[in-house]
């Protein structure tokens, strides 16, 4: 399996980049955004959907996925309804 971000350092870097993206978007455009970060597109989209508006950054590392997704209802997953 190919991963774009590997290990604890990669998770920290991804979280930092998400925060930078949010701050720059707010500063330059005046728009607050939500940034969901996860080891797969499905997890990242689910994380994004759990961030309360107006904005924020939430990241889930590969070793946290099962524990984090477990309590969520199936409807929280993108495309499952």
Structural notes for this entry:
The chain is mainly alpha-helical and 81 residues long. Helices cover 47% and strands 10% of the residues. The chain contains three helices and two strands, in the order αβαβα. The chain has a two-stranded parallel ribbon with strand order 1-2. The model has no long low-confidence stretch (mean pLDDT 88).
**What is the arithmetic mean of pLDDT?**
88
In what order do the strands lie side by side in the largest sheet?
1-2
The poorly predicted ranges are none
Query: Which overall shape is indicated by the principal axes computed on the Cα atoms?
Result: flat
Count of alpha and pi helical runs:
3
Structural class: mainly alpha
What is the strand tally?
2
Q: Percent helix among the residues?
A: 40-55%
SSE order in H/E notation?
HEHEH
Gyration radius from CA atoms, angstroms:
13 Å
Biggest beta sheet attributes:
2 strands, parallel
N→C terminal distance: 28 Å
Taken as a percent bin, the fraction of beta residues is 5-15%
């Amino acid at each position: 399996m190919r991963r774009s971000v590997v290990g604890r350092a990669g998770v920290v870097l991804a979280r930092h980049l998400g925060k930078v993206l949010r701050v720059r978007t707010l500063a330059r455009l005046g728009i607050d955004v939500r940034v969901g970060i996860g080891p797969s597109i499905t997890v990242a989209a689910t994380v994004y959907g759990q961030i309360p508006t107006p904005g924020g950054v939430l990241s889930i590392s590969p070793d946290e996925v099962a524990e984090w997704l477990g309590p969520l209802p199936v409807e929280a997953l993108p495309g499952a309804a």
